[in-house]
């Protein structure tokens, strides 16, 4: 009986020595490329600066949607932005050729041959912007709705 604990201790010791072999792999570092290229049919499909402009534009549109003093014309102009118009607080965005609207329902896979659906979805966005101003801001619902959230 005294032999079994010693045998188990010896077996455990041998198992630990064998399993603790140094088999760590060398970790190599990953170098990110300075440029990314996403191509479809041999043409780039991503413009970093264009995406950044649209994100910043969308943030100002969202800020306007949360501010009942923002007019419907201002919100629509920000959403539809035309280069050179002073729709944003950042002059760089005002000089941009980009707009938020241009990327709504803009997937070439789904809408390149289906302008009816694309127009319908864009009209939905126009309706939502209009409803924000006409139904929430103008009739006082904005004040009572936001007050109930506090």
From TrEMBL:
Source domain of life: Bacteria
Family annotation (InterPro entries): DUF4856
Pfam families linked to this entry: DUF4856
Protein name listed in UniProt: DUF4856 domain-containing protein
